[in-house]
């Protein structure tokens, strides 16, 4: 996340526009839309106007071409207001990144301008009913039939699947391949015959954004839908995209952790007990100090990961560290904020209970925190061999 002195005038203008958008179009309606689990169509329409669906897509394809650092700053600011809004662009941009980094020239020319404009929005379909973290265990099949693939299988917990129009779907093109990842491919599937949204999932938090279960039944797509035109590269392609996704999750964690801190600082100066504001009690002061330290540490880790991504370096360890720490910071700060707010933190009249419900998702999405620890430790050994 570039500091103000490093940002270009265009980036400053974009961030200012995002701030105005959040205050005018999101904050006044976030609580009601979240409570009713209503898809925020008017907010999405405004995001299209702002160009956010093309945030990290190259300008040659109509995108804003923002760095991961600036994009992470946008996500952090969004999540201080309503985390669900960030998910509407995150999955979409992971899909776009896969096409931009690995797609054929024809795929880039065909899809990226429509992704950037928001005309065609979507996400990624990885998780299956019996497969989450272990992606090599997926069962969805894509079988060649002349110039087409015929796709059969099921996916679940897929964001942007009900309201979006296209998904990058991880499939098995060779289920007998050893190791399994050599038989996995990534295919773009637009909505059409054989592509069914079975049901929208009811969630504890992260409400408003559509998260659904899908079924592909003899879904026929052209061979040209295979990202990169070469089978067996799908797992590597999506893992590369998940580096950006994990930076997004880390930025979300920073945003929620900061929102919890900001609201707790304000409340602690207003709420009084034993004849003085509770911010003058040492127990509260200690919580606020820990909360602030978590925010700053999470922000610095996220900045480091984003800078590594922008430089083109391998950054799975940095992204994993940022995602791990920032998501845990969000969870811890939401708990401390609820304790500082007392009974009011448990009430739907305040935002704290929403942060408390939203934060745990960050420890699960884009690879569980247990997986992040494994990734980090493996990279530590790989980079420090004796």
UniProtKB/TrEMBL annotation:
* InterPro entries linked to this entry: Acyl-CoA_Oxase/DH_mid-dom, Acyl-CoA_Oxase/DH_mid-dom_sf, AcylCo_DH-like_C, AcylCo_DH/oxidase_C, AcylCoA_DH/ox_N, AcylCoA_DH/ox_N_sf, AcylCoA_DH/oxidase_NM_dom_sf
GO MF annotations, alphabetized:
acyl-CoA dehydrogenase activity; flavin adenine dinucleotide binding
User: What's a Pfam family this protein contains?
Assistant: Acyl-CoA_dh_M
| Domain Acyl-CoA dehydrogenase/oxidase C-terminal as annotated: residue spans | 232-380
**Keywords, comma-separated and alphabetical:** FAD, Flavoprotein, Oxidoreductase
User: Which cofactors does the annotated protein need, by name?
Assistant: FAD
Q: Which residues form the Acyl-CoA oxidase/dehydrogenase middle domain?
A: 124-219
Q: Which residues form the Acyl-CoA dehydrogenase/oxidase N-terminal domain?
A: 8-119
| Protein family | Belongs to the acyl-CoA dehydrogenase family.
> What's the protein called, per UniProt?
Acyl-CoA dehydrogenase
